[in-house]
Design goal:
52% helix, Rossmann fold, alpha/beta, 8 strands, 4-stranded parallel sheet
Amino acid sequence: MKIALMVTCLADALFPDVGRATVRLLERLGHDVAFPSAQTCCGQMHVNTGYQDEALPLVRHHVEVFEPYDVVVAPSGSCVGSVRHQHAMVARRAGDEALAVRAEAVAARTYELSELLVDVLGVEDVGAYYPHRVTYHPTCHSLRMLRVGDKPLRLLRHVRGMTLIELPAADQCCGFGGTFALKNPDTSTAMLADKMRHVLSTGAEALTAGDASCLMHIGGGLSRLRSGTKTVHLAEILVSE
């Protein structure tokens, strides 16, 4: 099985350890992972802000880059959600049915990390060891768009040495929402305050999630509070041993 890593813009630019952790984890499980160096932005940012015409060449490029692979994995529910729910739509809106069909085929074999591990590889215990108190935030795209359900929690429950603490009001958005945080800063800040209050109420040493964007938003708030609670991506916990 030829697996390709879709690293995402945010991981590539700001959180490269998340991409590295994803590769190391899959390699530890016996899989070879390719990193197509020609990959670029998936176009989600453009589509979400109304620039569908500008997103079209990005969709076409994404399909061309990842078409040769059996499986594509990304440590991001948000970007996988874009590939599955936006790419074919963008192509069809532009009148390119052939591209839409190709995009649907690539999307059908594109997975968020927990989906790949549990649904495709059939693994819940990845042999991780992380001796800390941890709480989990289910990100909006993974929860509502991809419907990953409890897959991340099933993986976390097998991590040795870890105490997993339930996060109150876990299904509430953290307030980031990409450009939402920029266009609606007051509302975003209020939502973040609620999320941080719930995180701190658990007494956890760390908050984990499957999207670096949400962790960046929540982590920035927690650092400004000097709370001592850190944020760590799901992949980084699962690769710990």
